Amino acid sequence: MREFLSFACEGDTIAATIDRPQGVPRAALLIVSGGNELRSGAHRGMAMLAQRLAAQGMAVLRFDRRGVGDSTGDNRGFDASGPDIAAALVQLRAACPPGTPIAAFGNCDAASALALHGPFAGIDALVLANPWVIDEAAPAKGDGDDTPLPSAAAIRARYRAKLKDPSEWLRLLRGGVDLGKLARGLLRARSGDVPSALASRLGAAMTRSTIPTQILLAERDRTAIEFEAAWTSHAFAAARANAKLSLHRLDSASHSFAREDDTAWLDQRLIEALTRSP
pTM of the predicted model, to two decimals? Predict the structure, then answer.
């Protein structure tokens, strides 16, 4: 059963949707949308996820952050979304019997928002997919191109994939490659990455986590590659030692876990988080 609701958040109104199971929910999930995405998700992915989990006995609440979709107010980005998440959680708790286990799920910068602004009272577990660790990049200098370069780790992963693709070699021979950009990329690929300020903040936040937290990575997704590079850096040294954190990798390039096998894997991880919550 799907219901639409709205609630207040610091003088603005947040629009939300809750999917309820038949009977009393055995667990509940709060979905936080990434970027400026609507609560339905890309290609209605989050709406379909909520429907699938409701069919398995879960209550699932999704919402539009202030300034996005049907919600009022200014869109101040993921880094200012702590009050929005807290207000949505209050609504989800009110819709469930006392003691119902509640997990929260976010992809990309929504995952980062959950890690940065938690712990939220009443959340028993977190599922953080492809957390965003990239600061607003300063333009690269030297050849007039003001396009920010990805990290060295992301460039190396991209070039490895290109070297395996015969069409890329043919494109190079035909002059279809920007040699200036290629040279910049090769130089960057040889360098080491310094963790971003956001990565350092996330590392500190994850170090403090006291609830079960799954980190899900679609291994060939650029955002996941950037996180993996940060995860192995000194910024996450203490977080890696936190027994509450677990890292799970999927051989996929789909940022939103859109393929059928990816979707099944994501559902499994979420159900595990919900059923293992106290």
Answer: 0.83
